[in-house]
Specification:
The protein is built from 13 helices and 28 strands. The chain is α+β, with helices and mostly antiparallel strands and 1049 residues long. It has a five-stranded antiparallel beta sheet, covered by helices on one side. It has a three-stranded antiparallel beta sheet with strand order 21-23-22, covered by helices on one side. Strands 1-2 form a two-stranded antiparallel sheet. Strand 11 and strand 12 form a beta hairpin. Helix 6 crosses helix 9. The chain starts with 168 loop residues before the first helix and ends in a 36-residue tail after the last helix.
Amino acid sequence: MPESQGNPSQTPSQGSSRGRSNHGRRGGRNGRGPRPKNGPSEGSGDAPALNGTSGSAAPTQQNPAREPNQRSRGGRNRSSKHQIGVSGSAPNGARPAGRRAFGGHLTSATEENGESSNAVSSSPASLSADAPEFVPGQPVVSRSKVANFAPSRPKQNRPKLPKSTAADLATRIHEDISNANYECTVCTDEVLRTSHVWSCTLCWTVVHMKCAKKWHSNQMKKEEPQSAQMQNDSSWRCPACNSKLSDDPGTLMGPEQSCFCGKNSSRKLCRETDYENGWSCQDICGDLLPCGEHMCEMPCHSGLCGECPVRVDATCFCGRVSKEIPCSQRDDAQESYSVSKEQWFEGTFSCQTTCQRKYDCGQHECSQICHAQDENPAHCPFAPDVVSHCPCGKTSLSELPGYPRTSCEETIPHCDKICEKKLPCGHLCKSKCHAGGCGSCLVEVDVSCRCGRTSEPRICHEREESRPTCARTCGANMSCGRHKCTEICCTGEKRATERQAARRRNRNAAPDTAVEAEHICIRTCGRALKCGSHNCQQICHRGPCASCPEAIFTEISCDCGRTVLQPPQPCGTVAPECRFNCLRRPECGHPPVEHHCHPEEAGCPKCPFLVEKWCACGKEKLHSQPCHLQEARCGKPCGKKLKCGLHFCKKLCHRPGDCEDAALEGGECGQTCGKVKMFCEHRCQNSCHGQTPCNETSACSGRTEIACPCGIRKQEVRCLASSSNPEPTRPELKCDDECLRQERNRRLAAALNIDPATHTNDHVPYSDETLALFKETPTWCETQEREFRVFSQSPTEIRIRYKPMPSHQRRFLHVLAEDYGLESRSEDNEPFRYVLVYKGPRFVSAPSKTIAQCVKIRATQEAATAALAAAAVRPPVPNETEPLNAFLLTSPRFGLTTDEVGVALAADLSQQPSLHFKIEYLPSDEVLMRATVQYSSFMSAAGIETALRALKKAVADRVRSQEIAGNVFLCHVDASDAITRREDFGRQDGVGGWSAVAGRAAAKKESAVAAETSPVKGSGRRLLGLRKKRVEQPSGQPWASQLDGDVEC
């Protein structure tokens, strides 16, 4: 920004600031106010220097005086009562005596009267002798008034606004500058909105830019630095805070910029420099225009000068039209001959009219558009020497009748051939040889619709006039991704289909942004913005909407008002979090819980104090109830009789009057009736109907039991009793095989003197390994056993997969599955190995006893065994007591395999489907066929021996007939496949089994001690302390006669 051209030694408060730099066009307040009525503008560049070294012409008339304490708005360019001669000389060219000029020097007491303002003062500045003594704390005594003082200007009362009291410094500075309440620290004049300012980067004090530069230059001109270090120190001190600063205030100027035309350049403040648009000097451009003849007459401008707008005289090529046209509309000049003027000229444009000049024949005229002319007329194109063929050009005129032609007026003969000239559309002309143009193409072609899906036949020359349109809706995705194109027969559908197909082929590539012009969505987005108050007004787009562009210009405070966000704030800004405590007090009167300030809807924390309160029903006074709890509940049923008079309220503790039937009318409640019906023993299931009798017209839906004659088999059926059918007919349940088996077992137990009520079943259906693993982790094993039982009872579940677990847990699952008859296997590798259990053909049902029960039974058995062993030493039990459980084939055939034995005896062994035989060779070259059952609870060891004895005859006959082995015996095999007992060679088949049982029953009763310790033959179990009851029956009648011949188990 150019500075004032006055003496450089003047202070910032003196002289005009911009008078000469503005070419005298602005004056008044800081060079911008209105001119005085009777005088030149103030603040011009002709103002005299204040130090008396240079002067300028004085104004012809004095400016009116202003109020003593009222300063000029722009600062220091107007004279006042206390400052005359600052920007202009005193009236009549004399400066009043005793006045000071704020330039750092005191003026002399007197000045020569009548001295011209343009003359340079010859006397140096000196102290005034009549200056009053300065006393600190006392008002300054003004000097003697000048007699010839200009009349004062009428007072202008301007309201004085108070200083700003804003919370932050920036707001206070802005408000004070706006209200003209901010003074420059250097010149003590107001800093206004229109002032050029500089601010300190430490204390943020704002001063005039010119004052800051002057202050900086004065400090840089200090002479005789104190040390060499200060010579290298270029810092200066802030006029307000006296802090050291290194930035030169002059460095805030922007770079030197050339104008658009390049003739002038300027340098302005950085903030005033237009870096984007540049500037114009407003001089004439003067660049050569594209025509090459004229110069640009526009003021200095940006960009190209454009076409030449100068209008010039021009003549058309044919010479008929002459007019003024813009220079830029002229074509290239062509030499042409004017027939009317008989002279040559230059044509520069076409008049677009037909030439109509006669050919040399004098009969025909030129039909071309305005063109350059020759001096001689052109040769006639219809002359005989020019036309040598028919109009289509395929036949020579010598071959046609009428040859030769003698003049151009004779008709040109036509041939009979097809024209076949190429038309603009690309087809050939189908007409016969003709003169003139070929006309329109009449070929029928298929024209596709706009989208290209369908086509219709059209005449060739009409296809561009009206294109067919199909009824297909486009449906392509628009550029926003939210909408679809609803255009009928859209021209961009095909390209949209190709674009979407390419995107599907390359899914991992970045989405292509090139969308067809037809599918650019131009709707307004309209989605709700995050602020919740406005909608997005941008064109429909992909992805999330931008932040709300609106702003909030009011303060946003917390609920208590102690934390405030100053405007402006983005729209949607929520109230700030307050670090102060909430001021609300609880209604209960207890001390509040300390918590931070929060919105009203959040609610304060609930009162944590414990008090005594009566429950809602009023039956009990509850202690230690939270204070914030509105209603305490004792949790007991209400128990009040309802309106029906039959039922009682089952609702838990509630307010009085809120019983179940509070919302019902009449003498009814919402409970079930429950009264016993008249025609059956069931209760009424209808809704409560008060004291009225139950409606039994419909059949009773209750369930009742029917039983077979023996009472073992039972079944539930619908009751069906009603008032019309008091005793309904129910199906008769007959006894089945289970009933017969139970009856048979009952009679068998009676025959063997066994009491089923007191008999205990101590069979353990689990292996010893299962029991041992169960004892290690009983809790976990019980959980797995429970899952096994649920899985076994479910008819829909086929397999169960366990999560990965350690090997000892997987081992328990495998042995338990074996006891249940389930199949199991382990899969995957460690540490992810897991167990899969599924139902196979061996599975029937789960054991009736749990593992925990069997552990107790086994413990009882071991304790009893140990007690018996300690009580007395008994003779060892003979091997004959061990039941037989296998076939032994002696002297097998040479080369006999176990598979051959199984195939040969399969038919005979199938008679006992509950038995499974394991066939293997013993070291003694004997074949062992061990019989096992899936569950030991289904068949006892004695039952296995009985079944083997029943099979022995058939097996022995098959072995002999096929010469499989020499002989067949029954034997007992222990767990290690060792034969502990063989069948007696002298014992005959059929002896034993139930015959042995009958023989033992018919024998004499042994002594009491022997009866207590002797085992039951064939049962495989030792019955301790079991005494047989005496059965009185007629002598001579065997006990087997009481079984009616039924001796099967």
